[in-house]
Amino acid sequence: MKEYFTIGETARLNNISIQTLRYYDRIGIFKPYYTDQENGYRYYHVKQFFYLDIIKYLKYIRTPLEEIKRFGSYTCTPEDIQHFLEEQESVIVQEMEKLERARQLLHRRRNQLNEQLDICRKKDEGFVYFRYLDEQTILKVETPQVNPHDQSDLYYRKLADVIEKIGDVVDNYYGFIYDFKPYKDSRDIYCNSIYTTVCNEKKIDIGEKNIRLDTIPSGEYVCIAFDWSAKNYDEYYQKLYQYIESHGIQTDGNVYQVSLPIDFNSLREENFLTELRVLKK
Fold first, then answer.
1. Long-range contacts made by residues 23-29, C-beta under 8 angstroms, separation at least 24?
2. What's the rounded Cα separation, in Å, for the pair 69 and 71?
3. Under the phi-then-psi rule, with left for phi > 0, alpha for psi from -120 to 50, and beta for the rest, what region is 226?
4. Using an 8 Å Cβ cutoff, are 205 and 263 in contact?
5. Do residues 46 and 129 both lie within one domain?
């Protein structure tokens, strides 16, 4: 029975490329049984194929090459192998959790973009409209002196920092909450808080006193949307306020402003779609 095989035969019998075998030889993970000194040909013994199967298995479970090299650099007992595989299982579980969070973020972002497209259609009509919103879990920071016209990026970064510390990514959805009143000028508005939505609230550990988790209630909201500008803000807020007052609509006393970026080019001037929401009671 044949015991020694060329690199081409070894590659074909083990469903692996010649280039991969050469690379494994070069970095010391899987070396040929011997190399012909006259012509440089590599030869592998049939008994080595078992170890190649182990390497392929470890690669399949996403073990880094450095770990595979370390694993094969000394004689392992079954206990050593068991401990090694337990470590790899832990790594895989962590990766699965990251992928699940990424899937949730992707799903939420797609829903937000669908919502944004719907708001854009409403904005083009220029009228007050009603829509039902599900309850939202939010992370918010108290901002007693912030006006909707002020730069609020630093407050938003505080929220992003809390979310990123648990391995999640903050999305592009952020808003303000302030009192629903008959403001003569939108520069008289002072926001109670700035918020963003979250999906892994159970894992959030908040260290700062003025940041906390909260919810925006579900229900029917009276809304108006516009392209953000100081002029538009005054005009559309007044239109929304007058509509609610003239129709005798009871509210929870808050305005929930949502801002969504329209342009994702960082070199251009900021361009936001804004929606003002007031919850009917």
1. 24/55, 27/65, 27/69, 28/69, 29/55, 29/65, 29/68, 29/69, 29/72
2. 5
3. beta
4. no
5. no
Q: Is residue 81 part of a domain?
A: no
Tell me the residue range of the domain where 194 lies.
98-279
Residue type, 7: I
Could you give the residue ranges of the DSSP H alpha helices within the chain? 7-13, 18-27, 49-60, 65-71, 78-125, 153-164, 230-246
According to the model, what pLDDT value does residue 219 have? 97
Give the residues across from 192 on adjacent strands.
none
Cβ 29 vs Cβ 72: under 8 Å:
yes
Q: Out of 63-67, 135-139, 149-153, which region has the weakest mean confidence (pLDDT)? A: 149-153
User: 130 and 229: one domain?
Assistant: yes
Contact 59, 16 (CB under 8 A): no
Q: What is the pLDDT of residue 266?
A: 44
Both 207 and 104 in one domain: the answer is: yes
- The answer on 167 and 108 residing in a single domain is yes
* Domain CATH code at residue 51: 1.10.1660.10
Q: How many domains does the structure of the chain reveal?
A: 2
CA 244 – CA 239 distance, rounded (Å) = 9
Q: What is the mean pLDDT of residues 12-16?
A: 93
Structure tokens at 257: 């402003």
258, 165 contact by CB (below 8 A): no
In this prediction, residues 220-243 reach a mean pLDDT of 94
**Tokens standing for residue 75:** 């004689």
Indicate whether 89 pLDDT > 90.
Answer: no
